[in-house]
Specification:
The protein is α+β, with helices and mostly antiparallel strands and 109 residues long. The protein has one domain: OB fold (Dihydrolipoamide Acetyltransferase, E2P), CATH 2.40.50. The chain is 19% helix and 46% strand. It has a 5-stranded mixed barrel with strand order 1-2-3-5-4. A hairpin with a 6-residue loop joins strand 2 and strand 3. The longest helix is centred in the C-terminal third of the chain and has 21 residues. It is flat. It starts with a strand and ends in an 8-residue tail after the last helix. It comes from Phanerochaete sordida. One of its GO terms (biological process) is translation. Belongs to the universal ribosomal protein uS17 family.
């Protein structure tokens, strides 16, 4: 099988050790009407470090069979909304802690 890489969204994670379900969508034209339809397929993907989170946008690449249904490995994480949200909350908490620890001056009182 030639090497294939797909971009998809993580739709299920945490239920199986080192495994995530990635949904890959593609747009095709209907043969009769010509309307664009969205087709999707789910792939079980090997995630060695258990780093994937729900709704991550990832690139997966085919590999030799890892188990009965796992034929893809995680290549890269393109976008992770959950990690971005956690990072934003951490920065807000640090800013609040820094502001709370500052001595009050006449200008801030």
């Amino acid at each position: 099988m030639p090497p294939m890489a797909f971009t998809g969204i993580v739709t299920k994670v945490g239920f199986m050790h080192k495994t995530a379900t990635v949904t890959v969508s593609r747009r095709v034209a209907h043969p009769l009407t010509g309307k664009m339809l969205e087709r999707s397929k789910k792939f079980l993907t090997h995630d060695e470090e258990n780093q994937l989170r729900l709704n991550d946008q990832v690139v997966i690449r085919n590999c030799p069979p890892i188990s009965a249904r796992k034929r893809f490995k995680l290549e890269t994480v393109l976008k992770s909304p959950e990690r971005e949200r956690e990072e934003h909350h951490r920065q807000l908490a640090e800013a609040a802690a820094a502001a709370k620890g500052k001595p009050r001056t006449a200008a801030t009182a």
